[in-house]
Write a structure and sequence with these properties.
The strands form three sheets. The chain has a four-stranded antiparallel β-sheet with strand order 4-5-6-7, with no helix packed on it. Helix content is 19%, strand content 24%. It is of the alpha+beta class. The protein folds into two domains: 67 residues; 77 residues, no CATH class. β5 and β6 form a beta hairpin.
């Protein structure tokens, strides 16, 4: 499921459509006051998840806020979990890289991404910014990959050189 508004553009993975709608409906219900008082909007959200979501977003479209649902098959290759507090070694990185999954864009509301050990890396051509755009969602990253400050270590390279680096720092012993 993709959910966007003026300040966020997030992708959530759910086991099925009902699960995605239930998650989205909970978010919609917590924001119901954004649309109360408008014509044909009841003071309380509908009990039915789909009805609540559709009614809410019908009154928010003009605000550049919305969602899209798409079905995809996630191929999972079993990989043993990491020991807490240690970035993977060379062999483990190879295993995780080989288990990476590409999620293509399936409609105009999706973005293509690569998933490596639950980290989603979105990369796409952005016509508005006239650039190749890359974004990393670290919210689903396993704790073992995060630095002690909670950030995901990153290194971006352009051509032969590094243009950004946020190295991994081991937790103090």
């Amino acid at each position: 499921m993709r959910r966007w508004d003026r300040s966020n553009d997030d992708i959530e993975l759910h086991a099925d459509e009902d699960g995605a709608l239930a998650w989205l409906a909970a978010d919609v219900r917590s924001s119901w006051s954004n649309i109360t008082g408008k014509e044909q909007v009841p003071p309380e959200p509908p009990v039915d998840d789909r009805a609540a979501v559709e009614l809410y977003f019908a009154h928010r479209e003009h605000l550049d806020e919305g969602y899209s649902l798409c079905e995809t098959t996630v191929t999972e290759r079993p990989v043993a979990p990491l020991a807490p507090g240690s970035f993977p070694d060379h062999e483990r990185c190879e295993q995780l890289n080989q288990a990476a999954v590409f999620h293509p864009q399936t409609n105009e509301d999706d973005l293509p991404c690569v998933e490596i050990d639950n980290v989603l890396v979105f990369i796409h051509l952005d016509a508005d910014r006239q650039a190749l755009r890359l974004s990393v969602d670290q919210d689903t990253a396993p704790a073992e990959l995060l630095r002690p400050d909670g950030l995901l270590p990153l290194r971006f390279e352009l051509g032969d050189g590094s243009c950004f680096s946020l190295p991994y720092q081991s937790a103090p012993a």
